[in-house]
Amino acid sequence: MSEETKSLNFIEHIIEEDLANGLAKEKLRFRFPPEPNGYLHIGHTKAIGISFGLGEKYNAPVNLRFDDTNPSKEEQEYVDAIKRDIAWLGYQWENELYSSDYFDKLYEWAVQLIKDGKAYVDSQTSEAMAEQKGTPTQPGTNSPYRDRSVEENLDLFQRMKAGEFPAGTHVLRAKIDMEDPNMLMRDPIMYRIMYAHHHRTGDEWCIYPMYDWTHGESDYIEQISHSLCSLEFKPHRKLYDWFKENVHEYAKDYLPLLPKQREFARLNLSYTIMSKRKLLKLVEDKVVSGWDDPRMPTISGLRRRGYTPNSIREFIKKVGVAKRENVIDVSLLEFCIREDLNKSANRVMAVLDPLKVVITNYPEDKEEWLEAENNQEDDSAGYRKVPFSREIYIEKEDFKEEASSKFFRLKLGGEVRLKNAYIIKANNVVKDKDGHITEVHCTYDTDTSKKVKGTLHWVSIKHAITAEVREYDRLFMHESPDGDKEKDFMEFLNPNSLKIKTGYLEPGLARAKVGERFQFQRLGYFVVDEDSTSDKLVFNKTVGLRDSWAKQKPKAQANTQTKSKPQQQKRPAISVIQQLGKKYTNYPPEKQTKVKTEIQSLAKDVAYEDLEPLFGTAVKKAGTRIAVMITLKELLKNGVKRNDAINEFIEKALEDKNELLVAEASEV
């Protein structure tokens, strides 16, 4: 196997295999299909990167298609924001398309399905239909309206379109199989009545197609070769295929290519909410200032916070393309922006918590303009001049009256180097009536060749300009803010996610433009915010120079271990089964028997939809595959029907080299 082949991700392997099997390269076509019901967030960047990245790799077109099927939640504002964000990330789409462009064609195909006896109008309440749906282990039951005549169904559907019925009185359902083990195949709804103004079609329609019906057929109309989506859509693949294969009979002469749906693990990030519904709540409840608040995980929020397109693309590259769900530590994203800005951001000096220093042996009327390097990481960045005078500000935390030998900043009797300037020695302090230090009196030494351990940033008081500095931190204090089913995610909000300070900056920053990024030396990376005016500069903190949360993690984990043991019992059964399977092959026979019994007991709380994604577990993870096989046996005993995915999983297991896995598969 060549190095190039080894480096391919599993989606690229699928595409290469399709090309080898006769798919013409010019037939490759991809799409990114957002729903315009909110702003794009960091989780979407993975899907964006995969589809547009494949377009770049294979020189294939990528459509930007808005799946705008729910007018009650969609707005033109979201469409505009999505286009702006994708372009900012540096991607170009071939065509800007909308599912609403296909409403006429979708309706035409729905009518044809009715005529062919593959769709019918159901007039039950949503509650009645839900009750008839069954469960993952119990088959559903047919609607009393399932056998309506073709003529009656056509009449009702046309009258639904004409607006003759109130919302909720009728729906159009596909006629598939109410006993299918995949609940999505149990006569899914294709159309519902909805009297809502659509941001593009206005009031032309009062019936709107459901997502599963619209999405796949839009792919088919656009002749998408590979429909790539996140892992939660894997159970939908069977329905996706049913719809496209039936419609193919009506359009194969002019739409010959059937799209192939394949799924990848979505991007989950610690300390972050990825639900657009929950992000909208933060906006509506004014917890944040808007979708582009720099604390939000939206692309707009990250851009305003100072993130660069390159840092986000590098983050997606590091995350990679996987088949299994996992949670990426947000510190990786922060690492990527630090790495990027370290190379590109000019260094400047700013003081955010000032303490006045008077250099008593420096002439009162003297000032100097000293040379300072802009960026030691960039030879082309050059130098600038910064003013120095008798009175300067340093950070309050950089001085102590008394300190240990390990304190390498300024202390009484001690010396430090001022960045780009002189060495100073603290001699005495001035305090207010409450005993707080208001000034430190120092002397300076022009011999800068002396060795001193500490170096401080500073600004000249008489030259300093002021700016509003917004210090942002993580919005949530919990690693998984929506992972606790007994608590509302809002309970984990970080009360200190925003601190507003007055900063004292070197005067050259008066010319800084909106969007310019700088490193405030020893403090972090900052960007000029769009709220800035000619009279008032506003800076947002992008990220600190190092991970300030890393020190807190061990403590948080210790608390979890001591306080959260009861919660561990509430982990999803499928998660516990995966954990038990990891070391299964290492256990002695007696322990394996005990663990197998435990897995069998847990299996009663596992839904087939949760188990099927684990059929693709890597071959080398034999223990996990054995645990999945044991669980599958229990589900089959409890009424889950065999399907192609189950049969394929069992067949592969029977051919495996692991004798334990073969033995379990032989019993199915």
UniProtKB/TrEMBL annotation:
Motif ('KMSKS' region): 273-277
One MF term in the entry's GO annotations: ligase activity
Chain intervals with Polar residues compositional bias: 134-144, 557-570
Domain Glutamyl/glutaminyl-tRNA synthetase class Ib catalytic: from-to ranges: 27-342
Residue sites binding ATP per the record: 35-37, 266-267, 274-276
Record field: catalytic activity: tRNA(Gln) + L-glutamine + ATP = L-glutaminyl-tRNA(Gln) + AMP + diphosphate
Binding residues annotated for L-glutamine, in chain numbering: 67, 211
Domain Glutamyl/glutaminyl-tRNA synthetase class Ib anti-codon binding: 345-445
Alphabetically ordered keywords of this record: Aminoacyl-tRNA synthetase, ATP-binding, Cytoplasm, Ligase, Nucleotide-binding, Protein biosynthesis
Domain of life assignment: Bacteria
Renumbered ranges of motif 'HIGH' region: 34-44
EC number: 6.1.1.18
tRNA synthetases class I (E and Q) anti-codon binding domain: residues covered: 455-529
Region of interest called Disordered, as start-end residue ranges on this chain: 125-147, 550-572
Subcellular location: Cytoplasm
NCBIfam families registered for this protein in UniProt: glnS (TIGR00440), PRK14703.1 (NF011291)
The family this protein is said to belong to: Belongs to the class-I aminoacyl-tRNA synthetase family.
Quaternary assembly: Monomer.
Name of this protein: Glutamine--tRNA ligase
